[in-house]
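Sharing a chain and its predicted structure for anyone who wants a worked example. Both blocks are below, sequence first, tokens second.
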Amino acid sequence: MKYFILFFICFTLTAQSKETVKIPGKNFSMDVTEVTVEQFEKCVKANKCDKKNYKTVEENNLCNYNSNNINHPMNCITWYGANEYCKWAEKRLPFDEEWQYSARGGENFNHSGSNKTKEVAWFAENAKKKTHEVKSKKANKYGLYDMSGNVWEYSATSHKLSEMRYSMNGGGFNNDKTMVEIISQIKVVPEHLMPNVGFRCVKDEKTENLPQTLTKEEIFKSIKSIQVNFKNCGLKYKTNEKIIADFKINKDGSVSDIVIKANSKDISNCVEKEIKGLVFGKFNGDSISIKIPIIISQ
């Protein structure tokens, strides 16, 4: 006996803590500030943040860990250390497009929150070659602080050059005003560790409320990606890729006979092993994924 799959995509507003703000029009919340030393220390005390991924003030007097600068950004940290913290906090690093959209704040400024650099940023002209307390400059329209200046912020977006590199956005305390613009970006190896580098995390929106029902046609238009590793298939992702998924639902509710086609080419072997409950993620380089509840009915 065959079963049919009904897909539902949920649109919800989740309660936000003081540490995060829901980004309008997106399915994630972002940390209001760069992760501070005080916040990071909780991860260290929980034995979840490895010392090999950061330096202390004893090792470099511009590093904030173990100093009195508990409300300054956690700096002198590698990409691995930033990623490790975000995972411990049940969050993740933002992708470039998420970071830049959030930094823009629904406004049209060169810097996050203003065209007057000193209103919103600690940079070469006013920072005195060091970090400063978070929230000591003006926020952008979304309520995010220090998206321009103070420290560069790691991204989850990777770049395969001569070696793997990750983006950093927003500029740091030692950069001039052109380098703390929203569009400013550099690419570094994940072992990169400097006093002008920090990070903030994002948390994906939960979908616990009753969903909005869509037709099959609307679903195919709404689904931007299926969890697929295109590199393993020898494919490159295209923004206009038409991805269609067919499944067989067994009597016990399990999913089998998964067929995924991208522009009519069968790429089922590239699909991650399980498609059940919530599939979570975001397009990044060679991998993409979606977050939708799958509701099954006979």
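Comments welcome. The CA atoms of residues 247 and 258 lie 5 Å apart.
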